[in-house]
Amino acid sequence: MPDYSWPPMDQRKVLGKRISRLDGNAKSSGRAKYSSDLNPPGLLFAAMLTSPHAHARIKSVDTSEAERLKGVTAVRVISKAGTEIQWAGTEIAVVSATSEPIARDAVRKIKVDYEVMPHVVREDNLANVGNRAKAAGEQVTGDPEKSFGESDAVIENTYSIPVITHCCLEPHGQVIAWGGQKLQFWPSTQAVSTVGGDLAKGLEIPATDIRVQMDYMGGGFGSKFPSDRWGVECAQLSKASGGKPVKLFLDRATELTIAGVRPSAFAKIKVAAKKDGTITSWQSQSWATGGFGGGGMPPIPYVFTKIPNIRLNHTAVSLNAGMARAWRAPNHPQASYLTCSALEDLAAKLKMDPVELFDKNADLTARPDVYRSQLKKAATLIDWSKNWHQRGEGTGSIRRGLGLGIATWGGAGHASKAKTTINPDGSVEVELGSQDLGSGTRTIIGMVAAETLGLPLSAIKVKIGDNSYPPSGPSGGSTTVGGVSSSTRKSTINALVKLMETIAPSLNTTADKLEAIDGRLRIKGSPDKGMSWQQACQKLGVNAISEMGENDTKRTEGLNTGGASGIQMADVSVDMETGIVKMNKLVAVQDCGLVINPKTAESQVLGACIMSVCAALMEERIMDQQTGRVLNADMEFYKLAGIKDIGEIVVQMDITPEHDKKGVIGLGEPCAIAGIAAIANAVANATGVRVPTAPMTPKNVLAALNSGRNA
Amino acid sequence: MSSIKDPDKPKKPGSGFSRRGFIRGVGLSGGALSTGVLETEAAAAPPANLSGPGEVPITLQINGKPYKTTVEPRETLLDTLRNHLDLTAAKRVCDRGTCGACTVMMNHKVVYGCTILAVDAQGKDIQTLEGVAQVANPHPIVAAFVNNDAQQCGYCTPGFVMASKGFLDKNPNPTYEQVKDGLGGNLCRCGTYVGIRQAVLEAAKQLKGGRNA
């Protein structure tokens, strides 16, 4: 079997180089065609009617007027009479028409009679949720009672972080043409190889009858794996309209209401330590909602999992609100925020520097050495020793503070198959049923093939986004980079070996004595004995080489693995009169094994830091108990940070031989965890008061300052 | 539903679509946007000629070329570009004038394509990213976005490139702080702002050097 291992760090020509993404020009020039941009001939437009009530039973749906409207091609009832609706925004009916305005007019003409039922849409006060709360049962490690009694310092506080949405800029949706037996499906998905099978289930047809194609997608963040009800309905509308293509993308209000959220997290936390800062005990009563399904238990205590005495209680709350979906590092940002807030409060109580507290207790984590070294690096980058002060020592109306957060993630490669084809004219193609969410997947596939073949990146044609290519896993859990880089490495080496076997006789040698470097195939140790890539490929005659490679998740052969750590530190200024928090700086120190493309890897971390600023300072889905609806289902009041709101961001990729030899580790999620905690702690450090409620909006900051003054 | 159409004459105050009317409309109608705006304005000044209901033929001058199509008077410039003319660089994201993904230029000013009716865009010089970013001659702003990795999923990127062009046309020598102010009308979800700031500064230098100025 060939040696698939990565070339040594000092011999790499393409891997590890800062390379601009292959599709950068297509995206920045507007020529990239997303599924929502497609206008195939005869395209029909669909619009959907959704429930205005959070909890109701449908008594009747009358579509007759809609059907009579000129230009309407099909009307379908999704929620029939008798259906119990469990959240506002639930899909009721859908219409296709020759134009978008007509489709929307038709939706307005559908008459629905609801029997409205009582709803619960807020979980902030557990006392108000009645029988919607489900306790998960207590977990106890060690002897919490005894250890709390023997500790030198104890803090107890309640912290919370609300439900937020994914807010993908390209909404969920698809274009579907279902004429004959074959169904053509252009989705916006994180799962090119599996979303067709999911749709097939919904339509009760064989998965082989569905062709999925998607060149670009406008953001998923964990919310775009299934084909969804709107996918099934879009297909049925097309079928009912004689197979004409139908476009159905959610409008923004629906996108923010039903297309996925991140669960909230609330917790009353008690944590204790000895005088020297050694953490001895943890107790938490947490609750959360992930919508109607309940769910959302944050893994606390986070990272410091080896605290000897722990008592955990969690309650899941089912609300009449849109369901949770995976959200970039599911439950980790919330857990990091809850845990690091409590530990920073503990440090403040001990009058101890929290960096020292984290360092002191690093042995309670799975990777003490990595965290200790990352704490040092981050502290240097943010000038911690100069800029940090004891909590409450700030003066004046604008007060500056520093804070820190911690992260861990898996990120080993998913199951992935790749096919590399070397053509007699020297051209090379790599095909995978994968997808590029904007993380740079296309580019790293090309880089791996180029490195392997000793060719420039421009010589490789990367083909992804089609379920007729070899199957590759969905992009979730930061598994893509490890999966596709490993399968591409293997398929490309397999193809290269075939090429070497073809040309070896003409060089009077054997394939195992050859190497591919700088556009040449040559005998190892005798650089002059060889031939150009072009000459070698010509020897294939008329037969192209096509070889497969597979990332077997049980046997990754050192190409990829899981386990990434990160530390982030924030520097903020808080206006004590207005409660406005201004980001000065956010520092992220992140490891991720072998870094294929530092340029796009850094972009991932920068993006995650900016998302953390959004969640720490602005983002919150606001539910109205009176009407049962999302009050801010638009981008004006569902706040995201703008270009001016983010301060300076410093990313330090931990690129070292030790990390490198672990192989490739996914990066998308580990960097999206620690920022919220870091910012929340910086606010506490600046103001001298814990703001227990995220996001750190002026309202929440002023409320905390007020209660701090009254205390 | 009706709309005021008078493409040849400049708008008199109160006789067309105005920002004040727009805001008032939002406030009054609480989300039923187009209806509120148009009714308020129609009441203020009886229109000289009406378009619609139903489709009307229009001609738009886009990237120096005339485009003929038929639209309903209530259709936005953005939806007309995307749904009728297959010019899809401008994206529909927030549906209502918040995020800037639909940014185009009209008479050399940066506008949100979702807040302008197609019938009102007649007679105006409309520039979309398709016209700015020629395949044969990459625009320095596009090149700077690529070079600084100022995109991830890329869905907000065309709007940012157009906003950057509008900004640099008026501010050829921007400071870092001015860039942050100048691009405040666009939102990104993946978090590409750091690259965008660098890209706009780099593009400013390139443009001053005379390329594509």
Task: Describe the secondary-structure layout.
The complex is a heterodimer of chains A (711) and B (213).
Chain A: H1 24-28, E1 44-50, E2 56-62, H2 64-68, E3 72-77, E4 84-85, E5 91-97, H3 100-108, E6 111-116, E7 133-135, E8 139-141, H4 144-150, E9 153-161, E10 164-165, E11 173-178, E12 183-187, H5 195-203, E13 210-212, H6 228-240, E14 246-249, H7 252-258, E15 261-262, E16 265-273, E17 279-288, E18 309-317, H8 332-349, H9 354-360, H10 368-381, H11 384-387, E19 398-409, E20 416-422, E21 428-431, H12 441-453, E22 460-463, H13 480-503, E23 514-517, E24 520-523, E25 526-532, H14 533-538, E26 545-551, E27 564-575, E28 581-590, H15 598-617, E29 648-653, H16 657-660, H17 675-687, H18 698-710
Parallel strand pairs in A: 1-14, 12-13, 17-18, 21-22, 28-29
Antiparallel strand pairs in A: 1-5, 2-4, 2-6, 3-5, 7-18, 8-18, 9-16, 10-15, 11-12, 11-14, 16-17, 19-27, 20-21, 20-26, 23-24, 24-25, 27-28
Chain B: E1 3-4, H1 19-29, H2 33-44, E2 50-51, E3 56-62, E4 65-71, H3 77-84, E5 103-106, E6 109-112, E7 125-127, H4 129-132, H5 140-147, H6 157-170, H7 176-182, H8 193-208
Parallel strand pairs in B: 3-7
Antiparallel strand pairs in B: 1-2, 3-4, 5-6, 5-7
In a nutshell, what does this entry contain?
The complex is a heterodimer of chains A (711) and B (213). Chain A is of the alpha+beta class and 711 residues long.
